[in-house]
Design brief:
Blueprint: H1 13-32, H2 37-42, H3 47-76, H4 81-89, H5 93-123, H6 127-142, H7 145-175, H8 179-185, H9 192-203, H10 206-209, H11 220-246, H12 258-266, H13 269-306, H14 312-332, H15 335-341, H16 343-367
């Protein structure tokens, strides 16, 4: 279908070019930017200036890895992670699945706890109410497959980018006079390259998680352009969050919830509530992307064996079972603490089972001309 197709068509410009980046942002942002803790861990240790360099470098690396992932996925026609890694790694694909399942247990448990804390803080309700609300929200979206998931990525993005833009405007108004002096007083930049590389390398695993939305790519040119802008779309909220954090450097490095720290400095209760609503929406789309990837993996295997796709009911049951396991049982049996303690190790595992094979075997497969029916790369 032509790239000039109507906006609501199967392969519209939005779905081919913007949707992959919005999907990657959906996976990364829930745990990464909602609290600001991840930004404090990876970017602030290099100082304010070094943090900006790390964010810029992470953006470049994320775009590069996204481009290669998107092109390989299109040429191999692999739009779920099981198919992708079976064709990339052969029998070694199981290593990625095991690492991914550990990651899903961790992030869904964390998202459930965060949703519970938000509802408890805003409404004074028991924390389990927020956890169940998030669980039901994710399940209701993944039940209806790709169309519902893609619509969620689009609609939540409006809220998310809008709130982050408003966030930096209000922050500059409230304490912007502190930001410039903080940059001047702390010129250190040590370690920024490694921090940016590590952050981007394990977060770009999201490019594999959002493989189902890549089915809209028509040419390699689509894959390159969408991958190129995926990095900026994902890292823009990080930049908008990081700049106000600098005003309170270095004290904010040790704040358990840097976002809450900054919101309290603003002294605007109405915006605090709006930000909490945005965080809940970010948790919803991030959790949805993780669960949907599992559903699509099961759907691919089921259709290969039975000749029919999963029903909506089956998607709902799988989603609820996975969410209940991760949000309730995992925490009770200590799995979350176990995985969290090895979080850095998990990040390095993804470097080994995703990033390195992608940049070696994946690039080799591109140049070996293992592609779909479209012509060579158009630039």
């Amino acid at each position: 279908m032509s790239s000039a197709a109507a906006p609501d068509s199967e392969h519209s410009w939005f779905k081919r070019i913007l949707l992959p980046g919005l999907g990657l942002k959906a996976f990364v942002i829930g745990g990464g930017y909602a609290t600001g803790r991840e930004l404090a861990e990876f970017f602030l240790p290099s100082g304010p200036r070094g943090g900006l360099l790390a964010i810029g470098f992470a953006t470049v690396v994320m775009s590069l890895l996204s481009i290669v992932t998107f092109v390989v996925a299109r040429r191999l026609q692999a739009f779920d992670y099981r198919t992708f890694f079976k064709r990339l790694l052969g029998p070694g694909w199981i290593a990625f699945e095991l690492a991914y399942l550990l990651l899903v247990i961790l992030i869904l448990a964390v998202y459930g706890a965060a949703a519970g804390a938000i509802v408890a803080a805003v409404f004074g309700a028991p924390e389990w109410v927020g956890t169940v609300a998030l669980m039901l929200g994710i399940a209701s979206v993944v039940t209806f497959g790709n169309t519902a998931v893609e619509r969620l990525f689009r609609d939540v993005s409006y809220l998310l980018y809008g709130v982050y833009v408003l966030f930096i405007i209000l922050a500059l108004y409230a304490f912007g006079h502190l930001i410039g002096p903080a940059f001047s007083a702390h010129p250190e930049t040590s370690g920024w390259a490694m921090n940016g590389l590590t952050y981007a390398s394990y977060n770009t695993v999201g490019a594999v998680i959002i493989l189902p939305v890549l089915r809209h790519l028509v040419t390699d040119r689509d894959a390159v352009i969408s991958g190129l802008i995926a990095g900026p779309l994902t890292m823009l909220p990080a930049l908008l969050f990081f700049i106000p954090m600098v005003a309170f450097y270095p004290a904010i490095k040790d704040a358990p919830l840097p976002s809450d720290f900054l919101l309290q400095q603003m002294g605007m209760p109405w915006f605090h509530l709006l930000f909490q609503a945005m965080i809940f929406a970010a948790l919803l789309e991030s959790g949805t992307s993780a669960v949907h990837a599992v559903n699509e993996r099961i759907d691919g295997a089921w259709e290969a064996r039975k000749g029919v796709p999963l029903t909506h009911r089956a998607r709902l049951v799988i989603g609820l079972a996975l969410l209940a396991l991760c949000m309730f049982a995992a925490g009770r049996f200590g799995l979350v603490a176990l995985i969290a303690n090895g979080y850095r190790a998990l990040a390095y595992i993804f470097l080994g089972v995703f990033v390195l094979p992608l940049l070696t075997i994946g690039v080799w497969k591109i140049y070996r001309n293992e592609r779909a029916d479209e012509p060579a790369l158009e630039v």
